[in-house]
Amino acid sequence: MKKLLNALAVMSIVTPSISATVACGNGNGSGDNPDPSDMTQLQKDMIDGADFMTRLILAGRHENLNYNVNEILSIFLTPLSTALYLPINYNNSEGKPVNLSTDVLKYGQLLAPQLRNFDNNGYAGIFASYIMGMYDNNFYQSFLKSGNKDGGYYFNDTINPNNQESYLYKTDQNSLGEYAGASNDLKLSSDESRRQLAWGIQDTGALTNTLLNEGYTGSGPGATHGYTGLFNTAAARNKYGTNSNGYLYYNSIMNSGKSGKIASETNAFDKSNIKKLLEENESTYSYQAGSSSNYGSILKNGTNEYEFNNTGAFITRKASELNVSGHINGFSALLDNINDQESGVGVMLEFMDSMLPIMSNESSDQGSAFSLVIDMWGIVKKSVEDSTNKNILINELKLDSNILDNITLDEKPIIKEGILGGNASTKDASMKVMLNSGDLKEKNAENIVEFFTELNRASQNWNEEQEQKFFEMYAYDEQNKAGLLIKTGIFSTMINNIGKDAFLETVNNSGKGVVNFMSWFGSMYKMVLDNKEVILELTTKYNEGEGKTTYKKLSAVQRNEIKSKLGFKAGKLEEGKFLESFYKMTKDKKTQGQKELEKFFGGFAGAISNNMKELDSNVLQYLYDDKYWQISNTHVSSNDNTQSGAKMSFSLNYTGKGDITSNATEYTSKVNVDSDFNPYQQDNEKTDFSRETKARILGLEQGKIKEDDLIAYDGLGNYENYDIVNHTYNIEWTNVSNDPLNPYWVITKIESFNKEGEQFYNIF
Fold it and tell me: Where does the UniProt annotation place the signal sequence (predicted)?
C-alpha cells in the first residue's frame, strides 16, 4: 500500500493558511498593530509561516480544539511518510475557496527548509519538539548536520539498542522509536522558558493525562499508523526505520484502540492495545474504541462514561480516507500559489519537481505527474502510427499527410510508478528522457512538437462537424465510449477521479477545448527543446554520478543555482528563459491550454469539497480563518530569514470555538519543569547507554492538581460540544541554526492568558 501512496506528494512540506492570510504579518517594530506597510515582503512571509504553524499548535491545547498536536503537524508537514494527506484545496460550505498550502509553504521554504527531508520514502512523522524549542540549540543544529553533508534526516530523540541515533536510511542501524527521549545526552533546555514548552508532545489532546495516570504512555514503537487496512508498516531497521512512538499518532490510535503493525524486534515494547493495557494495570477505567463512523472512543469508570477524542479522530480519519485524493489535490494547491516573486518561483520549482523534474525522485512521488507529459508522447504515437487514427486525421480533419508521414516516434520512455499508476519502472524520471530516449533521441520531441503545430494549424479551419469528430476521437463518442485521450494511462485514472462532467467542463465540451488541453502537455516538449543545453547541464550535474540527489535534498545554495540557471535572477524572471516560459504556461491565460489546465486541476478541488465540508465547518475553519485569530504586537528583528539568533514575536488572540469541558485555563500556578523531564513520557529502564526515564505528570507530583481533577483538566475533545472561547498567547520564534545556508526557526516562548487576563500553565 505504501508504494501506492508514493506519488503526487509534491509539497515538500505540504504539507497551510487558507490563502495568504490578511491578519498574519501585521507589521514590525515595536508597539501594537504597527502598519504592515512597514514590513518587507520577506518579513511578512516569515510571520505568515510562523503564525499558521503556531495556530496548529495552540489549537491543539485542551482549552481550544483539544487534539494531540504531533499527528496534526505530521498531516501538514509529512503527509507522504505518514500516509495522512488531508486535501488542502477545496471549497467550504459557503462555496468559498480554501487553500491550506500558502503559509505552510512559507514556513517550509523560509523557516525550516530541511524538514522537507522527513516527507520522503521513510516512515517518520513530526513531533512537537521539532518545532517547539524545548531542547537546547544543539538538538536542532545536530539535525541540520546529521546523516550526510545535506543533513536534515533525523533528530536525536530516539536511539536504537546500539546507542545509535538514526532513522530514514536504508541500513540495518535505524531506530524504531525506541527509548524516546532517553539518551544520556538529551536533556531539556537550560532556558526555563523553553523547558516550559515541554507540554507540546503529551499534554495536548483529549484525556491524555487521565490515561497517562492509568499507565498508558502512548503506542508503539514501530507503529506507523493507527488505522488497520491503511498504511501500516513493520518499519524494519533496514527499511528506513521510524521515530514513531508514544504520542505521534495519539488521535488515530485512540480512535482505533491499537496501533498499527509492530516490528517483531520491538514486540517487547508493545503497548498498543489500550483495552488490554488498562486491564493488565488493574485500572478502574475500561476502554472502548471508536470507529470510522463513530469517531469518539469511550472511557468508563463505574457509572461514569466519557466519550472523547471526536475532534482528533475526525481530522486523522479524513486524512486517511482521502489520502489518495489529497495527493492529487495538492497539485491544484501548488498551482494556485505560483507567481513571479521569490516565494512563487519556489512553489513553481516544487510543481516542476513532479511535472518536469530535473532530478529523479527516489520516493517515486513524481511518477503520476510526469506521466501526464510522457503519456502524451504515447498518444501522439498512436495517433500517427495507427492507420485508422491517421486516416481520420488526414482525410476528415485535414492534417497534412506529408507531415504526418514524416513523424515517427520511439516507444515512450518508461518512468516510475505513481500513486495513480503511470509507468512502472525504476528507470530515470527527469526531463532528460524527453531528449535522449530511444534511437531517435531528441528527434522524438521535435516530432511531437511538429504534430501539435500541424494539429493547431488544421483546427483553425475546422467546421462544427470536424470539431465534433476530434472530440469523439480523443474524448467521448455518442455512445459515451472513451476516446484516445480518456483511455490512456494516467489521463484515464485522473479524469475518472474528477468525473466526466468535470472534464467536459475543463475542455468546454468541445473539440477545440480538447486540442488546447492536449497542446499544453505537448508544449512541454518545445520548452525542453528550447532550453536543452541548460536542462542537460542540470540533469547531468544533479541526476547522475556522484552528484546525484533529489530536489528535497538540495541546499539553499543549490536551489538558488538552479533558479539562476533556469532564468530567475535579481528577484525577476528573465525574458525568454525556461522559468519565464513555464510561468506563462501555468499562469498566463493567453497561453494555449492554460485555462484548461487550471480547470483540470481545479476540478480536483471541486471533486473533494463535499467530503471536506463537515470537517471544515466543525474544525478546520478555526485553524485558518483570520476572524478567529487576531494578531498584534508583531516584531521581526531581521530582514534576513537565515540570520542566526534572529527573533520574531507576536500575540495571538483566539476567539473561535474551544473545548468548554476543559478547565485548563484555571491552573494559574506555574509547574516547575526540570531538565531531566522526558516530554515523550516513555518508561525506560536504564541500560548501558540510556538514562532511566519515567512517565510523570509534574502537576500531580508538585500538588498543582489532584487525580480526581485530571478529566476536567484534559477535557473530552468532542467538537459537537464546543463553544466560543477567548484566549490570548504571546509567542516568540528564534532562528537557532548556526548554518547560514539552512535556517531553523523554533518557538522559544509561549505565554498563555485566559479571558480574565490571568496567565495559566500546563500540568505536563
Answer: 1-19
